[in-house]
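Minutes, structural biology subgroup

Action item carried over from last meeting: produce the structure token record for Sodium:solute symporter family protein (Paracoccus nototheniae). EB confirmed the sequence was re-checked against the source entry. Recorded below for completeness.
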Amino acid sequence: MSQFTLNLLFIGASFALYIGIAIYCRAKSTAEFYAANRGVSPVMNGMATAADWMSAASFISMAGLIAFTGYDNSTYLMGWTGGYVLLALLLAPYLRKFGKFTVPEFIGDRFYSPTARIIGVICLLIVSITYVIGQMTGVGVTFSRYLEVSNSTGLWIGAALVFCYAVLGGMKGITYTQVAQYVVLIIAYTIPAIFISLQLTGNFLPQLGLFGTHEASGMAFLSKLDLLVTDLGFREYTAHHNSTLDMVLFTMALMIGTAGLPHVIIRFFTVPKVSDARKSAGWALVFIALLYTVAPAVGSMARFNLTATMWPGALTGDTYSQPAVSLDAIETAPELEWMRNWQVTGLLNWEDKNGDGLIQYYNDAATEGPAVEMAAAQGLAGNELTTVNNDIMVLANPEIANLPGWVIAIVAAGGLAAALSTAAGLLLAISGAVSHDLIKGTLMPNISERGELNAARISMALSILVATILGLNPPGFAAQTVALAFGLAASSIFPVLMMGIFSKRVGKEGAIAGMIAGMLSTILYIFVYKGWFFIGGTNMLPDTPDAWLFGISPASFGTVGAVINFAVAFGVSAVSQRPPAHVQELVESIRVPRGAGDAVAH
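Output recorded by EB:
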């Protein structure tokens, strides 16, 4: 059976499962559409939350970023998991006790202002749309390779699938679909990692293989990898090279951004009791850890396998003891079919710049070392592996390692499960904000339940269309795009939720001013450095560490935006009237665990 046929079978079977669950669990009321009728158990909700959370950025892109950056990109792991601790302790149980459907609804009621609710909707839409672009990027990457279609065609196929099960099922259908998607994605991520760990280190557990011995050379695996990449002129894999300030701010942005993500928060509105919200967060951490503890091993082993493919001598101890891989081998050798397959997608490419029939892979920015000496001796004009998209590494790794076809097929299904599960959650958050907060809460308060449900489905369909169009030209790799969304959530939504729960002094004026200041400052900083502001046809400032303000990257600025939000909110509130007595009582009732067994239903 051909690899393409296997891909179709595994992907088709997973699609049929998701759509079948959505049809069976079709939402028939707004309570089912927005919050699954608050009937999801903590374990099931934890698994669904993990799938909702572990997006294309986690499954496809994170290990790729770790593969090419090493230690410095462990910030993704620390920030994202640490954020769940904040969410479980500081937000989830209190927001569940409040007992409403959406984040903007809490903001509007707590700050007794329709304007605050609308600002909350705007912030939610900006965050969620930015986030969903990353998911659609992952969908396009996966489909383009495994169904052998263009990236744009893959995006439209993914959009159609999300439309089928998200628009039909709402939160009820999405919840149980995400449970199935979690099972698919964790199996798809773990199985190839086990195979590759056994190949390289003899360890069954990838977590142990990462710190084990490279069997072919007898060296510690990470030491061998460090030697390999430094020989090629790249920086040491296990060393820290980036700005410590930026690393801390980036990790913090991911943490507080996690705690402020609307599509994650609404998952805690689906459980029966307040105590179940905290239990759900705990279970989600367990299920997330099953993948996140494997990701560093996947990233490092993917980098090793890619380099060993380009330099066969790496396996025997001397990178340059054998010639680099030849063009003839790339075009004909069965074990290099993966290179031909990924070249078709445009995400991997090479060029024989010196005409010697070999493709030399090295860091052409290096100024000394074996790579420089080799380049001088062979008359190289530059690195000849010209394109390696970070997002292909997890998906290509089983092919590079020549694993069985069924393993490659299940990885394809897993990558799609990760991207589609998060996309569905984000689209539900968007549709809830539009239909429940904007239409019912502001524009048409007397709309019928059926009308609101139809509005939710229409707004979700439009959101899918917008997300797909934007996903055709994303501002970075999947994980980079998602990181920008975390910064936006950190600067706008997290502070207002924290102040809404823990401060009786912050009023509507402070909340509105804080959200606007935090969001606008972060958007401005991102736009300036990401190349979306132009003067005379050129970008205002290059997106490089030397040009960043105090060395703070655009993805890290969310932490600064959050500080601005808090400062403006408290400053404005200090010169404004105190919130009304009934609002202060509301804050007290949310925060103090009296009658915490059953939250007031909406």
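Discussion: Residues 23 and 119 are 34 Å apart (CA to CA).
Next step: EB to file the record with the rest of the batch.
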